[in-house]
Amino acid sequence: MKHAPALVFAALLLLVSASPFTRAQEAAAPAPGKGAAEKLEDIPAAEMDKLRELAGQKVAVVGEIKNTGRSESGINFLNFDGGFVVVCFPEVVKDKFPDKDPAKLYHRKYVRVTGEITLFKDKPQIKLYGPDQVEEIDRPVGDEKPKGETKDGETKDAGAKGKDAKPEKKTPKRPDNTPGETVDADQYFKKK
Questions:
Q1: What is the mean pLDDT of the chain?
Q2: pTM (two decimals)
Q3: Which of 14, 46, 69, 169 has the lowest CB atom count within 10 Å?
């Protein structure tokens, strides 16, 4: 009986260390001696077939985050141009992003995201466990934003000049394009 408190403490410690969240964080953490020195090949986010083939492996995905959103349950979605998605769950947002949700922080940024590729409904994704997985990088030459694009990603109408100039098409802003706006998570994972 006098060892009961020690046994209860040991059981609690075992439960905490065996939790799925703890194991996921450990899996995302670099192995001792690696960290920033580990160099992964940059894979463009638009290469969905290649990313799907790399499921279960740690990769570096690069591209522009075109749309972001936040579900009612607090899940943040970072949607790359080309369909690749980075998902960040509410407990991670609360613990690792206390000042600003990832959906607001990385909206319209050109980034490199590192992590293990997982599949959700046969679509590749990376689960975000902290800001150390995301690095804002320079755009490759030839991949600049169109001239006249505002910080919100809308194009300014410079006006057509000359009789042969075609008027610029304006694409209406989609409601799910606002950074951090509450969205329906199912819209990101529909089978096509």
A1: 73
A2: 0.57
A3: 169
